């Protein structure tokens, strides 16, 4: 099997080309590929399949040729992955499988259609505008942290740290606890702290994340969008540009009246072949 390894601000993925959807991709195989000691290692798998050839993508086949079949590293599905979408687009462009039309490229996902825009090393993807819909809380190491539930096509819980608690000191080796009544299918939990202003933005936030199905990752694109939306709300703004610093680098989120753009680097680092177990 051919593979490519790529990342977006340290959020890394195994990319598997399967245009006609013939690969028998199973949870066990995904987990084996993402194993960092016995496999290739990654936060997830991106299967590159034509939308018309995948049951979850066929409804969008008239709008996008390619479907991003995204799996978490534990073999579970996810509706959307912002960094994954940017790496997915980088792969399509690098391999000549797609070219932008009018400067944009559509991609089908389980969360619906996303559009991508390419500017050199930076790839931006347009997703739905984050929807802030409930108050909830996370429990981490005996500490209860109030937060905001956010829908970005997948579920998030954004928790701002109180004064006196350093973001770097959080122990994210274990999953935070959350209210299953609010998040019956699990949730990505973001912890945030304010940062110094950045030119050209309306706000600047530091973030760490524990992703369902992948544990702590160096970056989460949809998580950055959720964090930006909460930061703008707290600043009594409906729209704006927010710089979100994650352990793997910086993402820029632009929230408009009806959508959300996630921008940052997307890099392909290796290609090769692998032997299936």
TrEMBL record:
Biological function: Catalyzes the stereoinversion of LL-2,6-diaminopimelate (L,L-DAP) to meso-diaminopimelate (meso-DAP), a precursor of L-lysine and an essential component of the bacterial peptidoglycan.
Listed HAMAP family: DAP_epimerase
Similarity section: Belongs to the diaminopimelate epimerase family.
Protein name, per record: Diaminopimelate epimerase
Pathway field: Amino-acid biosynthesis; L-lysine biosynthesis via DAP pathway; DL-2,6-diaminopimelate from LL-2,6-diaminopimelate: step 1/1
InterPro entries registered for this protein in UniProt: DAP_epimerase_AS (IPR018510), DAP_epimerase_DapF (IPR001653)
Phylogenetic classification of the source organism: Bacteria, Bacillati, Actinomycetota, Actinomycetes, Micromonosporales
Predominant cellular place of this UniProt entry's protein: cytoplasm
Gene Ontology biological process: lysine biosynthetic process via diaminopimelate
Organism annotation: Micromonospora wenchangensis
Enzyme Commission number(s) from the entry: 5.1.1.7
Site (Could be important to modulate the pK values of the two catalytic cysteine residues): 156, 211
Domain of life: Bacteria
GO molecular-function terms, A-Z: diaminopimelate epimerase activity
Annotated GO CC locations: cytosol
Gene behind the chain: dapF
């Amino acid at each position: 099997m051919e593979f490519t390894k790529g990342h977006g601000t340290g959020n890394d993925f195994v990319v598997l080309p399967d245009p006609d959807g013939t690969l028998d991709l199973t949870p066990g195989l995904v987990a084996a590929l993402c194993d960092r000691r016995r496999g290739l290692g990654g936060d997830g798998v991106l299967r590159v399949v034509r939308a018309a050839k995948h049951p979850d993508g066929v409804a969008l086949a008239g709008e996008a040729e390619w479907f991003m079949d995204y799996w978490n590293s534990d073999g579970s599905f996810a509706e959307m992955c912002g960094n994954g979408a940017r790496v997915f687009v980088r792969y399509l462009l690098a391999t000549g499988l797609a070219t932008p039309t009018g400067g944009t490229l559509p991609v089908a996902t389980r969360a619906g259609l996303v559009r991508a825009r390419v500017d050199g090393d930076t790839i931006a993807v347009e997703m739905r505008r984050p929807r802030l819909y409930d108050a909830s809380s996370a429990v981490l190491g005996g500490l209860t942290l109030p937060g905001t539930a956010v829908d970005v096509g997948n579920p998030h819980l954004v928790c701002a740290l109180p004064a006196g608690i350093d973001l770097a000191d959080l122990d994210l080796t274990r999953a935070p606890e959350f209210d299953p009544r609010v998040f019956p299918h699990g949730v990505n939990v973001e912890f945030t702290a304010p940062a110094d202003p950045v030119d050209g933005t309306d706000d600047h936030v530091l973030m760490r994340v524990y992703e369902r199905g992948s544990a702590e990752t160096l970056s989460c694109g949809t998580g950055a969008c959720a964090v930006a939306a909460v930061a703008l709300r707290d600043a009594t703004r409906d729209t704006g540009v927010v710089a979100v610093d994650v352990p793997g680098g910086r993402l820029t989120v632009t929230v408009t009246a009806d959508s959300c753009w996630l921008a940052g680097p997307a890099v392909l680092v290796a290609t090769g072949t692998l032997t299936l177990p």
